[in-house]
Amino acid sequence: MADSYDVIVLGSGPGGYVAAIRAAQLKLNTAIVERENLGGVCLNWGCIPTKALLRSAEVFRYMRHAKDYGLVAEKITADLDAVVKRSRGVARQLNQGVSHLMKKNGIAVYMGEGKLTGKGRLSVTAPDGKTSELTAKNIIIATGARARDLPFPKADGKRVWTYRHAMNPPEMPNKLLVIGSGAIGIEFASFYNDMGAEVTVVEMLDRIVPVEDADVSTFLEKALVKQGMKILTGAGVQKLDIGATGVTVAIKARDGKLVSDEYSHVIVAIGIVPNTETVGLEALGVKTERGHIVTDGACRTNVEGIWAIGDATAPPWLAHKASHEGVIAAETIAGQHPHAMDPRNIPGCTYCHPQIASVGLTETNAREAGHEVRIGTFPFIGNGKAIALGEPEGFVKTVFDAQTGELLGAHMVGPEVTEMIHGFTIGRTLETTEAELMETVFPHPTISETMHESVLAAFGRAVHI
Amino acid sequence: MPIELKMPALSPTMEEGSLAKWLVKEGDVVKSGDLLAEIETDKATMEFEAVDEGIIAKILIPEGTEGVKVGTVVAMLAAEGEDITAIGEGAVPALLPAPEIADKVATSIPAAVPVASSAAPAIGASRIKASPLARRLAEASAIDLSTIRGSGPNGRIVKVDIDGATPASMPAVAPGVPAAFAAAVPSIEPDIPHEVVKLSNMRKVIARRLTESKQQVPHIYLTADIHLDPLLKLRADLNDGLAERGVKLSVNDLLVKALAAALIEVPSCNVQFAGDNLLRFSRVDISVAVSIPGGLITPIIAGANAKGVAAISSEMKDRAERARNGKLQPHEYQGGTASLSNMGMFGIKQFEAVINPPQAMIMAIGAGEKRPYVVNNALTVATVMSVTGSFDHRAIDGADGAQLMAAFKRIVEKPLTLLA
To answer: Which Cys-Cys disulphide bridges does the record give (chain A) (predicted)?
Structure first.
């Protein structure tokens, strides 16, 4: 006899568990299926544990710069094992938190590998081999994604790592190559650089963090090089040989020359692959594009009763996008009519040093979309609080439509910008123009004043520059 | 707190209007979108829609009042549960039309209260919820926010609502579209996989007006076949001669002129049904249906009967172009005495168009195609098109309609008349 539910969520990452909670809040009888850890990659192997690692790196960096603040800190060393242990502890705490949330909301949890066996039917194989048959009118696919591997030698976990090995490393790398300069690659590059490794980043495109505004890429590259990192853009890895003492990598540089070098370790961060192959989608005829499930604004797939959210679907592949889609899917299933998400209102954050945060269109995108733009840029060096913090690096750039005053995008690089981008995100969601942003009183002294100044600068009114 | 219902500006140029008819009475419960009153301006009679919900507490301006200035409070709307008897009674200055306030204040309020502040918007004035960006976009395109229904949280008007809207309140929407816009839409969504597309303001107006037309206007349809070769030849000759002036006439331009000429010949078809009256127009303004992204709009060739075909052609080009860019001014698409809808370019042989109220006729033009054709009892091949007039039978009898069709046919078949 199959267990019957109103909604089954397959996958318990930030998309899946939020979808399950929202469905339960809407009085739907809900089950969630997870093959590994409640909370998914984000909480166990992604966003959160890496933030714990990066926090250690940040404290370590402050200690090294103690002198700048008039303090004395001698014989500073890092204990990588302890740093990783702290990170795992943070992940464990949150994992238990999700477990508690499932219980609190009366959501049935099935641990095991879930597979669609027919319309509205799902079979879960537990680690001990036992299977449970579940049925539900609505099934939400929230299986997420995993790291894309290189076509040549696969990540072995010893010398060649994916993000997953990199956050639980067998040893401290002394000479590290990071392939790919997206958020994941650049965060690990920043972490290991701070921890004392010699780090090289190789990026195929002509600039690092290529989804960000070009000015941000340029600034970040300079900042990272200043910190001792080596950055190769417009360069591709041609060959990779894992040896006993290290990895020999041949890189075709921008000028076409092939350069070989040996690294102690390599991190592969060249994107993600959706976890959609073993779900049983094909048999049901669920439409996918390059593995990613095709959905509409309400997260419906082309097959009735099958919904999909998060990394298993279209980009951006961000935890908060998955969570929001989870809410949209659950509410639509419950008969509500939530608004479809506007991808331009989804902020993106990268926790390298200095941090990057952005929302909306870049200057280039805005111009390509036919907007006549007004650009405002304000550097942190013009902000009293940033100077007091000893972190006057970076800037806030705002992009406005010159005709309508619409805030098209905001791009920040500098201290704690990831904690400030929501201000511009609220502005975009509420459809403010420059007028309301200018009229807003920003507290002094804060680094958020740079946001205000950037808006003023776009209209030739910046005060402290 | 009661909400003031103010005389709306139903077009960018409207300064005052007549309160022709109240469609609600005191004590009626209204919800957003309900029709409250009919407002007449110099141009047209338009509907005044409720934006907020509540109970009509007090009607302050009786129906039939003329020259009511825009912004004057015409009625008070109470929230459910509010004591409606207390509202509007006694001397509450804010409830009175602006001009009267000064007098009232002078006599009944201690002098310490500055007059100016009383004239300022009263607390509780109905607030339109709109994003700052939406407000700015609306202002830039002369769109009256009170005529737009917001799709944001709690009915907040957001950017997409403005993007879908057309300037001013009542776009004259062209007929000639398959009448697929039922007003009563099933509220249950089908199980079939689908995507939900928010209706633009234009789409909503099209749906509403075409439904009204089909429900309220008794249509009759008269079809005629017209020999098109003479007109095609004339067009070719004219275009030869006009090429130097940079004018290129389309068949449609000539048909606009032909319809205008026919309507002058048969004035009983250049009319409008207006309740107890019939309006007979002495000028012909032809609304021409133009398809634009997300709907259609009907730019008007005003006084087409008196214009030359070259003038009609260049005016049409300009208007169609600006219509597609959403740049038409309200007076360029509102009004018209009759419409023309041409689907010939889509290869449509014949169709019946929906009348565009308050107009009383529309001519639907099919494709000109080679057909067997009998001339002097001999079978030949000729270019023939089928045209169908839709007539408002309340205003136009079948025989009058037939006369118009005959006149139109004769003019098109002897097209030199167009140049006369």
So the answer is: 42-47
